[in-house]
Amino acid sequence: MVGVSSSAADFHAGFACFVGRPNVGKSTLMNALVGTKVAITSSKPQTTRRVIRGIVHRPDAQLIIVDTPGLHRPRTLLGERLDSLVLSTLTEVDVIGFCVPANEPIGKGDRFIAEKLAAVKKTPVIAVVTKCDLATREQIAEQLLAVSQLAEFDEIVPVSAESGEQLDVLGDVLIKRLPESPPLYEGGQLTDEPEQVLVGELIREAALEGVRDELPHSIAVVVDEMLPREGRDDLLDIYAHMFVERPSQKAIVIGHKGTRLKEVGSRARRQIEALLGTRVYLDLRISVAKDWQRDPKQLRRLGFYD
To answer: In what order do the strands lie in the sheet with 235-244?
Structure first.
């Protein structure tokens, strides 16, 4: 390696991604490894819709984590695009983390994904048993055995994103599979997502809190404008638009006399202020975009491309 110092040659940098069925803790795990919130989390499945990169900085390595939507059997055009996004990501990373929760039995969804991963020949796959804080030692031991019988994995690592247990071990295991490379991102950068995308995701997360199970798939958020208030350096004006598929869903989000929408706005504003480090005025509107998940033109308008 001509012209590279031995210390630079010892540095590793590359990409990892977490896959798994919806709601197995992939986004929470990435946020814990990065050390801050770069992906939204929710108790509702299929919350993540974009590939978001979180960046873990270590003295000897830089691990860029690609957070993908949950892999599942698609039922809509949006579902097909999300699955296509996941499968294309698997061929572009240096290591894959297959997430299975410790506190739930292995099911059809896990087997479906294990089969998909078996087709990815050249990329090492690490099985990550998540949510260990919610399981007993016996349950964790049983799940480790069950996961080992699903497929041939390079390693199996039990972790808890909530308590931080084994996070450093998982980081070491992933970094070990990265190529020698100089850093790919600047030292202070934690994600390569534009701020507007992160803000839109925080608004959607706030809207998902405490609503019916069918709603998460039907909410999309577009941030139209983010700009400093004229004459004020300490205040950012954000204009955002939330879209649902039916008038009945709009009524759920708005709530009685607009109380729920007001709560969503307050919750989102607090999260956005924490992310951006400045005071925020949030103007949040809601509209019906009928059956947008099945309409190619509307999917493109909302940022979900072919």
So the answer is: 220-228, 235-244, 279-288
% of the chain with per-residue pLDDT over 70: 73
The residues near 246 (Cβ < 8 Å, ≥ 6 apart) are 218, 288, 290
* Residue 235: pLDDT over 70: yes
Query: Mind listing the pLDDT tens digit for each residue in 85-106?
Result: 556 667 778 999 999 999 999 9
Structure tokens at 20: 């798994």
Residue 76 — pLDDT band, cuts 50, 70, 90? low
Query: Mean per-residue pLDDT for 240-253?
Result: 84
Please give the angle made by the CA atoms of 226, 232 and 237, to the nearest 5 degrees: 20
Determine the Cα–Cα distance for residues 19 and 70; give it in Å rounded to an integer. Answer: 7
129-155 confidence digits (pLDDT tens): 999 999 999 999 999 999 999 999 999
Question: CA 200: distance to chain centroid?
Answer: 13
User: 3-state secondary structure string, 5-68?
Assistant: CHHHHCCEEEEEEEECCCCCCHHHHHHHHHCCCCCCCCCCCCCCCCCEEEEEEECCEEEEEEEC
pLDDT of residue 72: 47
Amino acid 187: pLDDT: 62
CB 261 within 8 A of CB 287: no
- Integer CA distances (angstroms), 128 to 6, 83, 158, 195, 210, in order: 32, 20, 6, 29, 28
pLDDT reading at 70 higher than 60: no
Nearest partner of 88 among 171, 150, 31, 17, judged by Cα = 17
The candidate with the shortest Cα–Cα distance to 292, out of 250, 252, 245, is 245
Task: Tell me the CB-side half-sphere exposure of residue 245, using CA atoms within 13 A.
Answer: 14
